[in-house]
Design goal:
Blueprint (H helix, E strand, L loop, with lengths): L4 H25 L3 H6 L6 H12 L3 H13 L5 H4 L2 H18 L7 H5 L2 H38 L4 H47 L7 H6 L16 H18 L11 H8 L4 H18 L1 H14 L3 H7 L13 H6 L6 H37 L5 H23 L5 H11 L4 H6 L8 H25 L10 H21 L5 H11 L7 H4 L12 H27 L2 H23 L3
Amino acid sequence: MNISMIDWAIIAAFFVISMLIGVLTSRKAGSSAKEFFLSGRNMPWWLLGVSMVATTFSADTPNLVTDIVRKNGVSGNWVWWAFLLTGMLTVFVYAKLWRRSEVTTDLEFYELRYGGKPAAFLRAFRAIYLGVFFNVVIMATVSLAAIKIGGVMLGLSPVETLLLASVVTVIYSSLGGLKGVLLTDFFQFFIAMAGAIGAAIYVLEMPEIGSLNNLLTHPNVSDKLNFLPDFNDYNLLIPLLIMPLAIQWWATWYPGAEPGGGGYIAQRMLSAKDEKNAIGATLFFNIAHYSMRPWPWIIIALSSLIIFPNVSDMQEAFPHIPVDKLGNDLAYSAMLTFLPTGLIGIVLASLIAAVMSTLSTHLNWGSSYVVNDFYQRFLRPDASDKELVLVGRVSTVLLMVLAAILALALSSALEAFNILLQIGAGTGAIFILRWFWWRINAYTEISAMIISFAVAIFFESINPKVQWIVIPENQEYLKLLYGVGITTVGWVLVTLLTQPEKDTILLSFYRKVKPAAFGWKKLLYRYPQEHQEQGRLPQEIGLMLVGSVMVYSALFAVGFWIYSNILPAIIASLVAIVGGVIIIKSWKNLK
């Protein structure tokens, strides 16, 4: 495709602004480690919320959605739509608890909640496991999306794409710290939204598509429009709807949708001005992430079924793309090659923004683990702020290098998504319960981590060769089910067979975080002088359900309006509005 000077000028301006933000925030970011990683704990909800959305607006997300829609239709998106339940639980139950903890990272939580060498081991191990290895896998999937975009739209080799995508990101992330990331995310979010919406509108006007009505009635598309899978086809119903809603959302750990909050979501909540801003940030994130963004991607994915019905059609159109990078997820980038001058520059800038916003967050988040939870905690407890910031900047560069190397070996965003789900299978319930059940200890988390990883390795690498457990090709969800079951049974047994944490540790945590007392009563019975926090957990769970209905209604209202189903559209819109009024009033009444 031809990229005009106007398009290059738009892209260049985007790079310059991103770099400028990093430079302007570098002095303050370098003043202390807390400023570099938490921006002084003084950030407003709207900036944090937009940053969360921008981070999950990764370039691999539209590729993932396209892959899903082409294979399983719109209803296939329940594999990630179900995580809204996790998100709303975080909003109304866990956001305030995280903010009260006042830790620097969510890994520091381990030595607040648990005690002794097991807690220290858990913190150190997960600092490397999550901050380096797991984080590198996530960034590699984002970099893979960049490789596919660069190859299809710019004709760049994988190495050339990675160099262009990573250099600017590393510079502003290492200079500006979290504040630089937040401000750049804010700028990048609006570019990304404009690019996605503009691309969807243009694609619908292509001669091959003709109009929205022509798209929806085309034989390649008409059977992929339903919001729910066919209830008579259990081979689709179970993996696409039942598993995500019944098990996946609470039982698995996935970046950005951690049960109980965690990772960069926790980092944003910890940097909020107060509890109210932490709740507002996560609320805005879940509304925008699940109801505002999916439809432009879905429209382009559906349109691609007309232009490129099969993967072989894309291989014919883009023969220079390496065979191992060909897949249904490539269709999103392929569709964007038809965009005109000017719009293609905006869309390319939006895709670059999507890549950079996600990478920058993961770089800052990962380096916070390396610095705060490993280097300072175990290697250099007396390190100065200047030294810690330097280590943070160096680790930022190294993480990006490792992610780029791994990206060259990956082939599919959906492949990586499924692997990450399998590795975290069965651990999610711990992250939900550890705030409310005094009996959970460090060995609970250590055992769950080991068991879930071992089960994932078994099903992904060993079982395909030895076939000890036969899993039919159309029942791949059984691997996740086995993982959740085995891991959950394992950590529950370990919890009950090992000693609980010392009372002093548990009471210190309880006094600081103030969780609802119902799961702490056996401990508190021994200390009648302790105030038992009644909390508002039933009301908070009620708000979680109201919030989930609100967002799903908004999501489907947009779909119904697009499909011209007027009555369902009106009903869904009214339900979303009523839910929104209830949620906003509840949020404003927070002290």
